[in-house]
Recover the amino acids of this structure.
């Protein structure tokens, strides 16, 4: 039996926060960059555990209830989100994290430790796609939680400005979930600093020159352009998996304390090896707000008026779309 090799990967450019500072700090760039240890200097490093976030209550003492992603949203039919209390979910993640750490396997993952630890810069390699067949992704995922809007005082815990200098309009989403969450292939229109606080995630990146083989989808999302390639179902998608195999990707192992710069229009997908807390900080400079932000808002307005990609989106219950 032939094993599907898929795209060729290389390790993403990587630097420690100390080395980056010696070079005068982060400079604008169009390729991804993994900065080891950047997040360890921020208050979030000490303050954010699953249990501590579970303790959050609204000012009136009421429990925090929010919407959870129910299955993969980027590909196929988006299921209606579930409104659930946050605290019990997070307390379970704290327990699961300890168990997974204690039983850590050198063989788990798209690029398991056994392979990853021996890779050299510039070396080409393939991933173990069979890993994604070993579980059902995203039973319930607390993805894109607007926690910093709900609790603005927590913004101080992320010193993103120490890494990303200069004025820009920023907004943040928090991702908290168990091992084996999958975020499907897409790209975002703004640049993004992806900050890993807890757990390990495998982050696959495909720079824009891969676009012709990324099978761009017609499914609408406010900030993202989606792909029809479902990395969890490659064995059911002969056309898409053949195109995907022509791409050249970058592999980032995001460990706790790391920050990954994901440039705009870089296709990516993410698989968690452990229960994780991650924060994505999206930012637009003033010219980017005027150009990109304006266009995106117009599309959103047309969508809500049911004039653009209605019935095939990540934000409303879908009727028309076919499962992938
Ligand atoms: O961590 C995840 O599951 C997804 C993160 C992501 O797609 C992003 O930051 O753009």
């Amino acid at each position: 039996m032939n094993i599907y090799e898929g795209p060729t990967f290389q390790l993403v450019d990587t630097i420690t926060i100390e080395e980056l500072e010696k070079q005068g700090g982060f400079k604008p760039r169009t390729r991804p960059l993994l900065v080891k240890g950047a997040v360890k200097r921020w208050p979030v490093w000490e303050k954010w555990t699953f249990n501590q976030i579970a303790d959050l209550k609204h000012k009136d003492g009421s429990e925090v209830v929010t919407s959870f992603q129910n299955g993969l949203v980027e590909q196929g039919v988006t299921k209606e989100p579930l409104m659930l209390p946050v605290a019990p979910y997070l307390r379970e993640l704290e327990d699961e994290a300890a168990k997974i750490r204690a039983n850590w396997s050198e063989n788990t993952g798209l690029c398991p430790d056994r392979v990853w630890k021996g890779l050299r810069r510039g070396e080409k390699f393939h991933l173990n796609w069979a890993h994604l067949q070993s579980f059902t992704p995203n039973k319930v995922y607390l993805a894109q939680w607007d926690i910093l809007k709900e609790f603005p005082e927590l913004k101080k815990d992320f010193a993103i400005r120490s890494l990303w200098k200069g004025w820009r309009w920023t907004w943040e989403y928090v991702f908290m979930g168990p091992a084996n969450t999958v975020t499907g292939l897409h790209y975002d229109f703004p640049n993004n600093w992806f900050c890993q606080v807890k757990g390990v995630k495998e982050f696959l990146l495909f720079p824009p020159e891969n676009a012709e083989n990324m099978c761009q989808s017609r499914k609408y999302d406010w900030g993202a352009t989606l792909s029809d390639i479902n990395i969890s179902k490659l064995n059911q998608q002969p056309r898409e998996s053949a195109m995907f195999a022509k791409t050249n990707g970058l592999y980032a192992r995001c460990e706790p304390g790391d920050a990954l710069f994901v440039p705009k229009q870089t296709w990516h997908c993410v698989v968690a090896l452990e229960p994780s807390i991650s924060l994505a900080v999206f930012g637009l400079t003033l010219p980017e707000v005027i150009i990109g932000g304006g266009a995106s808002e117009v599309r959103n307005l047309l969508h809500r008026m049911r004039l653009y990609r209605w019935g095939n989106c990540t934000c409303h219950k879908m009727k028309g779309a076919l499962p992938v």
